[in-house]
Amino acid sequence: MNWEAILAPYSQVVEELKVKLKGMRAQFEYEASHSPIEFITGRVKPVQSILEKAEKRNIPIDRIEQDITDIAGVRVVCQFVDDIYTIVKMLQSRKDFRIIEEKDYISEKKASGYRSYHMTIEYPVETIHGNKVLLAEIQIRTLAMNFWATNEHSLNYKYKGRIPSDVEKRLQRAAEAAFKLDEEMSKIKTEIQEAQRIFHRK
Ligand code: 0O2
């Protein structure tokens, strides 16, 4: 399989989505006092991770592009939980891609403690062989959710998916703490935003 050739259009999808989301962020900064977007990242899933996921989920090689929906992935990181839903609404009204699935792991967290909003989209991209519609995943989360998920992801990698139960318990507690942090920050949101406006003017 020529993975580089297969993944090249996915890399283009990631780059295009990043440009568009960064465009939204810039517009917010010019037009509003608060940008709901803190930062944006993106990646194409490495071939090894694609193959591992396919094996784990019994996906045949010829179904990978249809069944693994996060080969192209972008992440929008926000300051506050409210900001996530502002971005979700804006993405829902866009005409340049079609949302095929949404998962709100914020109102209902995963068993691991993971919280984030996931959107699977069909994104049309121009290739040298014509127009192709590729799947991509947009993850929207707060800074606190991102902090937790990044650390949990590293531990999962370290323990090859079998995190010891004492560490797992600590992660559960950390997830609770991150949730509380988001709640507390939401309560003092206006105060924080005022402080940030003063800081910007200086
Ligand atoms: P990567 O690229 O290294 O991040 P499903 O579980 O199928 O109902 P979901 O959750 O959308 O739906 O799909 P999936 O495949 O389980 O997870 C997709 C991605 O979401 C993951 O990518 C992670 O980025 C993130 N994610 C989901 N669950 C967790 C979790 O419990 N902890 C953390 N840290 N991240 C999670 P990959 O495949 O891990 O790869």
From TrEMBL:
Organism of provenance: Ornithinibacillus halotolerans
Subunit structure: Homotetramer.
Pathway in which this enzyme or protein is active: Purine metabolism; ppGpp biosynthesis; ppGpp from GTP: step 1/2
Organism domain of life: Bacteria
InterPro entries: GTP_Pyrophosphokinase, NT_sf, RelA_SpoT
Lineage: Bacteria, Bacillati, Bacillota, Bacilli, Bacillales
Homology family: Belongs to the RelA/SpoT family.
GO biological process: guanosine tetraphosphate metabolic process
Domain RelA/SpoT span(s) in chain numbering: 42-163
Name of one Pfam family that matches: RelA_SpoT
GO molecular function, a single term: GTP binding
Record's keyword annotation contains Chaperone: no
EC number(s) given by UniProt: 2.7.6.5
The protein's name: GTP diphosphokinase
Keywords: ATP-binding, GTP-binding, Kinase, Nucleotide-binding, Transferase
